[in-house]
Amino acid sequence: MAVDPRPPEELDPKLSATSEGAGKTAPEAGILGRVIERIGYVFAAAIVLAAIILVFEIFMRYALNKPTLWVHETSIFLCAVSFVYGGLFCASRNSHIRVVLIYDALSPAWRRRFDIVIYLISAGAATFFAWAAWLMVKQAFWTPSGSFRMEGTGTAWNPPTPALIKGFLFLVLIGLALQFLVLAVNHARRHRRGDNRTA
């Protein structure tokens, strides 16, 4: 049986379109997407740091019999903020999970229309979730009487990481809503240029 020596993307144009943007910011994400991409390296480093301090905890606990109070909660915090940022990072790269049953059956012109609608709906959803996150932030940063108090974990160390994670989630959701709006606007511009070419 003969094997075609051409790369898979030459055999199937869909593979080329999918792999073309893999590993880099989507052009339609604009300047905001490039900033999000750069900041992403900080959160990638946070995952590595979490792994390092977990190894440190293993050494302290089992080699020196002096377990720490801070490693477990710090590693959870570092991983949590990295995972939260991951959604924004994926949106800037246009690499989030999609259900493409209908999308793949559409013509390129209709796909561009669907892209605009999908990004506008996503921006609305992110705005709604940002509002819901703000309700959590208010409870995490202020007491019912209005005085400032950051919510802690309630453990012996009691860091304010629950409040920090909720505040960070709120900021990321605002960034996500803005990124989806940028994607919608830039897809609309591309769609208009595409219509002009085919007219």
UniProtKB/TrEMBL annotation:
- Tell me which InterPro entries the record gives: DctQ, TRAP_DctQ
Localized where? Cell inner membrane
Q: Which residues cross the membrane?
A: 41-64, 70-91, 116-137, 163-185
Q: Where is this region: Disordered?
A: 1-23
Keywords, comma-separated and alphabetical: Cell inner membrane, Cell membrane, Membrane, Transmembrane, Transmembrane helix, Transport
Enumerate composition-biased segments (Basic and acidic residues): 1-13
Tripartite ATP-independent periplasmic transporters DctQ component domain location? 51-186
Protein's membrane topology: Multi-pass membrane protein
Please give the superkingdom of this protein's source.
Bacteria
Broad class of the protein's primary localization: membrane
* Role played: Part of the tripartite ATP-independent periplasmic (TRAP) transport system.
Would you identify the family this protein belongs to, as annotated? Belongs to the TRAP transporter small permease family.
* Annotated PANTHER family: 2,3-DIKETO-L-GULONATE TRAP TRANSPORTER SMALL PERMEASE PROTEIN YIAM
How is the quaternary structure described? Answer: The complex comprises the extracytoplasmic solute receptor protein and the two transmembrane proteins.
Its protein name is: TRAP transporter small permease protein
